[in-house]
Amino acid sequence: MTVPDSRNTISYSKEGPVARVVLDRPDVINAYDTRMRDELYQVMQSVGDDPDVRVAVLSGAGEKGFCAGADLTEFGTAPSQTIARRTRWARDVWGLFLSLEKPLVAALHGWVIGSGVEMACLCDVRIASEDAVFRMPEVALGMLPAAGGAQTLERAIGADRALELLLTGRTMDAAEAVRIGLVHRVVQRGSLRAQADRVAAGLADRDPRALAAVKTAVRRGPDMPLHRGLELEERLLAALKR
Amino acid sequence: MSAKPRSFSLEVADGVATAYLDRAAACNRISEALAADVRDAFDELDHHDGVRVVILTGMGEAFCVGADLPADEPDLPRAAGRVRVSGCIAACRKPVIAALNGSAMDQGLEIALACDIRLASENARLGLTQIRSGLLPWDGGTQRLPRLIGQGRAMEMILTARTVDAREAKEMGMVDGVVPPQDVLKEARKLAETIAAHAPIAAGYAKEAVRTGRDLPLDQGLRLEADLNVLLQSTADRAEGVRSFLEKRPPVYRGR
Fold this sequence. Notes:
The complex is a heterodimer of chains A (about 240) and B (about 260). Chain A is built from 10 helices and 10 strands. Chain A has about 240 residues and is an alpha/beta fold.
């Protein structure tokens, strides 16, 4: 069953247990703006709440790329820093991504810049096509990553590699990205969607409770001392056996 | 920065400071005097408005092959571990690039691990061999190496005292680039110039967010990142960054 939607910056559909979330501003390489934030927030809430959805695939519309980053034309429009800070937490879309217990698959092609990299890092499985190019331009523009990148990139590839990418702002190709673990698999452009669907279908076949438990254990464990992480693992396992 | 201590020297040009471990005859072993110079220099560099990026390198063939252990030192284990320098390098808020012109052994590698980006000469060897003398790495090596290359590989290197060449170090992620010996400083300068062209406050905050965030639970790390972002919105450089992008011209950052 496909459920088309009338939203403008995100298109959302379901095929059986797989939800498709598509960043859909192809004329600006899916640049992330406040409207996209609001729509992404709604859509990701549905992903979490909809009992039929077991896994979500995040991708970008158009030929040019997954996401060119934040839409800079909106920058500097916040009335003040105190309001900017409040707004950041009023609709915490990145926290919402992290709170989801369902697995998220990112299908990345072409330009994957700034918030594009950060959104990918909030997903659990990252598949890229051979032509994908990654870059963190924030520091070169006088700012910092704002979608969790200074934290999630470090957890994905290590602090030193993360810092090197952030400080230099250099581009990285898909081959290097897979070698250092930023993405998990590189496939041909033509088969990206099929490969992402295959991974998603495989995940949808698993016991969703086990997926949720392992996601919690692996995501939360590293923030704890080892003995707490082991206790968490034991608790999650006990809950699964019930 | 005019006084140049004998065992350590410093040049500053175009926002990039190049700091030399300058005891080539002793393969830049860390003496108490050298350690004190490094600490003073990094303290000063941290506050020096003209410095945006620091390169740390060694004079001569080696980067640094370890601590100074005089032959007449009767009590080796107690003497070792007195002079730590990695803390003051790690505490520097500005990006620090290690240009490993040659081997980085023991405390020499520990110092390199405290830097943010490492480039190595293809003939450099790297290792933590203190266990051969009945000692541990004492300048952060047991903490920073596993964070960088993973616990298993770090354990193997520390327990066996095995040293690796630059190529293997790169495969492990211990160094970020391997270049011919004569190009190490040149490549480090290129990298430093790239970083120095970026907004310095943002670069310092990026370092803080990544380094501090590493030791925080993720939700707290995200708070830190968001707060630093909001603080940056008050800087002129951030406005310049956005404006220059929209006007399709290179930005001019002033560190304000």
